[in-house]
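Researcher: We're teaching a course module on how sequence relates to structure. For the next exercise, students receive a sequence and then see the predicted structure as tokens, so they can try to spot secondary structure elements on their own. Here is the exercise chain.
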Amino acid sequence: MWNRFILLNVIALTFSFLALAYEPSPLQDFCVADPKYRGLGRFCENPMQVQAADFFFSGLHLRGNTSNQLGSKVTPVFATQLPGLNTLGISMVRIDYAPWGLNPPHTHPRATEILTVLEGTLQVGFVTSNPDNRFITKVLQKGDVFVFPVGLVHFQRNVGNGNAVVIAALSSQNPGAITIANAVFGANPSIPWDILARAFQVDKSVVDQLQAKF
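Model: And here is the predicted structure for the students to work with:
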């Protein structure tokens, strides 16, 4: 009996630690972000003064401007754009892709992402953690759904001849995004060239060229 009691307590503690690893459940119905305050810890508006507009966002029907080097555009709906999302632990984005446009390899350190294709044909993929580094990829068509586990490097690429559009939901109001190329070669201040040269097994001239691009 005592062993069973200990086991149940261990299980309960395990689940409590898992819960604490993600955003905590809110302690009130909602906490509309007060626009006067910035930062990750957003103060709440007076709940008696919030309006329907605080829970509403319009604009995901509009195409993003993909006239850039990557040929893609992310339109976020975070607490900054939709104050009613504050403390609810979710957010979403629309991503537009020109033909052969790319949303380059990146991670979301605080969120799992689930993506639905609304238009076009996409190649998507992610890489598992060390030491296996498995590359898992699939080509998606309109209506297909794919999930990117939290923290893993992933990408999307339009492999069709027309535009592509997706809607993606993320399991955090502030999922964060670390674009691998920008972080490695565009760090401020720069990562010393000899570290990058040794990590990527290239010479200084290659590192200099890549850092110059970012």
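Model: If you want an answer key for the exercise: Confidence is low (pLDDT under 50) at residues 5-21. The radius of gyration is 21 Å.
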